[in-house]
Every structure is written in C-alpha cells, then in structure tokens.
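quick one, 230 residues, struct below
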Amino acid sequence: MTSTLRQTAITVASSMIEGASMAAALIGGAAGAYLGYQLAPADWSDGACIAFAGAVAVVGAVAIDGLADLVLAPMRRLMWKNRSTVSPSTGRTSAPAPADTLEQALAQVVTATEEDAARRAASAAFRIDDSDNFLRSEDRWRGYEDGEASFYLAPGVVLHHRAERGEYKHRFTLLTGDGEQPVAITGMEQIRHHLAARAAGLPAVPVTNGGVDGDKDDVLDDDLTGIHAV
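---
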C-alpha cells in the first residue's frame, strides 16, 4: 500500500471510529430520554417529566459512550500509532527523537547502520537473484554495525554481503560453520548447487566457470542428478 493510500485509509478509519462514538452517545441519550419519560410518575407535571427525561438522557448518553469507548479505545490507539510512525510524504518510519546523551546517540546510529546494511544487501541482491521474492526481501537480512549483512539459508549456511563503497561493488559470500572455505556467490545456481550437495552428504565443491575446479564440479553435478528439488 502506498503512503497516500495508507494515510487515506487511516483518515477514513479514524472518521468512522469517531462517528461510531458519536452515534453511540446519541443512541444512549435517545434511549435514556425515552425511558426517563416512560418511567416518570403519572402525577408529575409535564415540565417535571421532561426534566427527569432529560437527566436520564444525559446519564444514558454518558454510560453508552463510556461502554463504546472501551471497545473503540484499542482502535484509536492503533490509528494514533499509525499516524505517528508513518511520514505522510515518504511512508517510512519517522526518525527517533533527538538523543539526550552520547550513549543514546550511538545506539541510534548503530540501529540505523544495521538497518542500512540490511537494506543495501536486499537492494543489491538483484545482481544474483532476479526472482524478486527471496534474497531481495529486507526482512530476511540481518545488518550489522560494520555495514555488513547476513542472510540465513539453512542450519550452518549463511549468505554474507559486504559492500565496497569506494568501488561501488557488492560481494556475496557463502559461509558455513563446518570449516569449509567461503564461496564467492555470483548466481542463485551456486547456492542451489551448494545446498543440494550438503543435502546429499557430498563435498560442497563450489560451481565455477571452468578449469580444473570445473572438472570437479562436473563430477559433483553428476552425483547430484535427480535431487535438484532438494
């Protein structure tokens, strides 16, 4: 949902909530007035009956509005939260309040750096993933305060991203926790190859473009025949 549509939806929902609150108060007042008039003693004058009905109407309106507020309060809080955390112009989360101490400022910068690293990794993932629904998901990336990020693939297997800002290069590396050498990743087929090999209990020789290692990869691909769905 775009920022404009979201803001419109929030405005409409807020108007409906307030309209419901007002309607509840009116209904409570009308019901109170009717009951008050009906319950007034028969020997009272018309003026006294009307005054009594008016008093009961006020009590009814306040009571019903209070009950409605209990129901509508969570919705009001949700609308307030959405209004306060989303900028109407960008649709992004608003910046935190200015820090009071150096420690708070450092914590804010660390958080921003981690978010920046995760977003950069997801944004750069198009270089190796054109599916647009896997590596390019920001929620799956975890950023770190050194500007690097990681993407959990499977137990013991993580895709690592590092950006070389001076050269505008993005490097993706497959890391494992069992002592294997890191593998430079330039395409999704390499990740598939590595995971399929691990699933089959075979040496996870990285896919290459040829040469001596390419001969090894050909042998491994033969061994992996039939398990591509892993």
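The chain has a mean pLDDT of 76.
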